[in-house]
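Re: that chain you flagged

S.,

Sorry for the slow reply, it's been a week of failed gels. I finally had a moment to sit down with the sequence you sent. For the record, here it is as I used it:
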Amino acid sequence: MTTAQSSAGSLIREWRTRRRMSQLDLAMEAEISQRHLSFVESGRAAPSRDMVLHLAEQLSIPLRQRNQLLLAAGFAPSFSERSLTDASLAPAMAAVETVLKGHEPFPALAVDRHWNLVSANAAIGPLLADVSEASLLKPPVNVLRLSLHPGGVAPRIVNLAEWRTHLLERLKHQNDASGDPVLIELERELRSYPSGLKGGRPVPVEPDGIVHPLRLAHGDQVLSFISTITVFGTPLDVTLSELAIESFFPADEQTRTVLVRMAKEQAAKAS
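Prediction finished late last night. Pasting the C-alpha cells below so you have them in one place:
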C-alpha cells in the first residue's frame, strides 16, 4: 500500500498483520484497550501523534515507514532523511570508514537499504577481479546481485547453493520486516538466477558447522569466510538507520594467511 491510498488505521492494521499479531496482542503490548485499537484501525478514531509513534514502536516499524504512517495520520514526519554526504552525517560516515579500514586485511563493505554498495575496504578488490559482467561493477553496485549473478561472483562460490539460500532467506526476512517494493523485486530477480543445486537437491549442512560460510575459489585455493552485520544503535535519521556494515572474517588459517599475503602484495604495488 502507498500512503496516498491508505489511512493511518489501515496502515497500522497492515503492519500488525505483517507482524502476525492479533488486535488483542498489539493492544496489550501498547497498553491500550482493544476497543480503542479497533476504532483506530477502522478509522472511527483518529490517533494522536504520540499514539502513532507508540504503536509504530510496538510494531517495530522501520523509521522510513514511521514517517509514512505519520503523514497518513496528518502529521509531519518525525525522522530526518539526509543524504550520506550531508555534513551532519559526517561523524557517522567517518565511523563507517574507520570500521572498514580497521578490518583490513579482511574484506568489509557498507550497504544501504537496497543492498547498494556505499563503501568498501581495499581487501574487497582482489576478490572481484574475475567478475565477467562489467555492468555489475558500475554504480550503484548491488552486492546481492553481484554475488549471485552468473556473470558476477557466483561462478567462484564453491558452496553457491548454500550461500544463495542464506542470502535469499536474509532478504526475505528483510522484506517481511519492511515491505519495500524495490527489495521485493530484487528478491524476485535473484530467485531467477541459477540455484547452484546439483541434481536438484540441497547441499546438507555440515554437522559441525556453526554458521553459513562463504567458500570462494581464488586461484587454486578456496577461501572460507564467516560474516557479521553491524548497524548503528538508536538512529534518529532514516538514512543512517538503513546503513549496514558486513565484515568478513577468515574461517580457517589458510584463508587468514592468503588474505595477509594479498594485503602485503597490494601495499608493495602501491609504494
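What I noticed first: Residues 264 and 270 are 10 Å apart (CA to CA).

Talk soon,
D.
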